[in-house]
Design goal:
The structure is a homodimer of 308-residue chains.
Chain A (H helix, E strand, L loop, with lengths): L5 E4 L1 H5 L9 H13 L4 E6 L12 H8 L5 E5 L3 H10 L3 E7 L2 H8 L3 H18 L4 E7 L3 E2 L3 E2 L2 H14 L3 E6 L6 H11 L8 E5 L6 H10 L4 E4 L19 H10 L8 H15 L6 H4 L15
Parallel strand pairs in A: 1-2, 1-10, 2-3, 3-4, 4-5, 5-8, 8-9, 9-10
Antiparallel strand pairs in A: 6-7
Chain lengths: 308, 308
């Protein structure tokens, strides 16, 4: 199986939008520049949502303005028609569209049922492709394993939505464990249903580390052939002391795990840890990434003696 | 392979001895009583070391006095002759002896080279067996994967010491990733060297979660047949904000992982989370266990829909 893994850094969008502190456009641009400098090639840049709803993502146009000359891939979340207009006006090169398995979650999150959001996406995708030349489109399926309101979700619901999203023209679909309840056995079951899917190589997994299971889930998915993972530097997203909150799996821990298996990532761990330190001063709270918190002076693996 | 796993709860010893705050004997007794009530059957009770060296473990005799009528197995660390005298006087039923792969670590930790400590153990074990009827003896090998001073450690060093410890009469040997640098590939290599060992079923693995790898390491070891793991409730041990510090893998996360795989543990997760909450007030700092911090209102797994 391939020894190459694609990491989609979601810190600047999924991470920051769940932080208490709102960062300036300047800081968000610097954040992304630092991430890119460490070797990350796919980064979520922001979100074309209402600044009233999510102030943390305000003026994502300004962020794009600051990074658009870089060669890496920066995607911007487009929740609806209004968002697409902004994306088209800004001439971004990658967009993301969003749905979930849970109606209640989707309603609270973007004000639509799952069915309604799929109708919107079906309309958005061709428009985006028409107006934004060669645009890359990523689909997100949230609450794929569990929903804070509805509880456990059936994997078949995800498979159905995933097929819909690819049929509508998405280039990649990310299956999200939004609240971090997936157990490796759930991951195994989900992937089992997808292994013969013709889009298998374009499926990403997106884990939150709410219960500390994210890396075991990634290891399980790696063994089953998945090669695209979303993560956020430092484990950004969600205040550690709020009930039920959860951050994304930490990029530095994912990279550490992957390097130890011999996967090529092209990412510098030292640079990532520097950026974690920097972003921590900006969000004004301690991060939760254990690798970061341990402040390793030397990055060596046990036993085999290889340095990272 | 067996669906039964033995968990050795090391919070009251390995955990507390690395906390800034020293708990009273009364609190340590209550702590152990709570752990036992949650279903844990093997608990480290304390350590017969000098209270000047490790004040957190002072009057371990008093702790034993408070728990000795319980039917569970409580082991007490015995670093030397003086410690053994105290263990004999207190009439404990289980003791632990301690060495490491790294000379420098062992010297700083117990003031002896590895060779010297093995000579001491060789002397202690028969004395313990003579004076304490049916005593159970556990050997610890620290820094088995890496040492803060010497760096990566060769797995062969661990295998050699492990064989020595069993030969000297240990009933169980715990291989410790004291500073949490083991990668699953290191764990795989280590277990590969031990799979044909006649004592394989009596080998425990002891992970610290310094780099967030502990649960992946446990999963890897489970797949390779290991059925004894050490853990500490809440991920006790080591201040989260001190450079290079690291707590044990959190018992509640290990139990959550195991239950999801269908292993029988006999432990109540709800009770564990209650005890994490209680111990947090005693050590006066936030724990680092992500499962605990997420304060789950409902303990459900994703996808398959099973409640814990």
């Amino acid at each position: 199986m391939s020894k190459k893994v694609k990491i989609v850094e979601v810190g600047p969008r999924d991470g920051l939008q769940n932080e208490m502190k709102t960062l300036s456009v300047t800081d968000r641009v610097e954040f992304i520049q630092r991430l890119v400098k460490s070797g990350l090639k796919f980064v979520e840049g922001g979100s074309f949502v209402s600044p009233k709803a999510i102030p943390q993502m305000m003026d994502s146009e300004g962020v794009w303005e600051g990074i658009k000359n870089l060669k890496e891939d920066f995607s911007f979340l487009v929740p609806n028609e209004r968002g697409l207009e902004r994306a088209i006006f800004a001439k971004v090169k990658s967009i993301s569209v969003f749905t979930a398995t849970s109606n209640e979650f989707n309603q609270k999150n973007i004000g639509m049922s799952v069915k309604e959001s799929l109708t919107v996406i079906k309309d958005l995708v061709p428009k985006a492709k028409e107006k934004l030349k060669k645009v890359r489109i990523r689909g997100y399926i949230s609450t794929a394993f569990g929903c804070p309101y509805e509880g456990p979700q059936k994997p078949h619901a995800t498979v159905k939505i995933l097929n819909d999203l690819f049929r509508m023209g998405c280039d990649e679909v990310s299956i999200g464990d939004t609240i971090g309840v997936a157990h490796p056995e759930d991951v195994k079951k989900m992937i089992g249903l997808l292994r013969r899917n013709k889009h298998f190589k374009k499926i990403a997994l997106h884990f939150h580390d709410t219960r500390g299971m994210a890396l075991v889930n990634i290891k399980t998915a790696l063994d089953l052939g998945i090669r695209i993972f979303d993560s956020a530097i430092g484990g950004l997203g969600g205040c550690p002391y709020a009930t039920g909150s959860s951050g994304n799996v930490a990029t530095e821990e994912v990279i550490w795990l992957l390097k130890g298996y011999g996967f090529s990532t092209g990412v510098s761990l030292e640079d990532l840890l520097e950026t974690s330190k920097w972003i921590e001063t900006k969000i004004e709270r301690r991060l939760r990434s254990k690798l970061y918190l341990s402040q390793p002076k030397r990055l060596f693996y046990g036993g085999r003696g290889r340095e990272s």
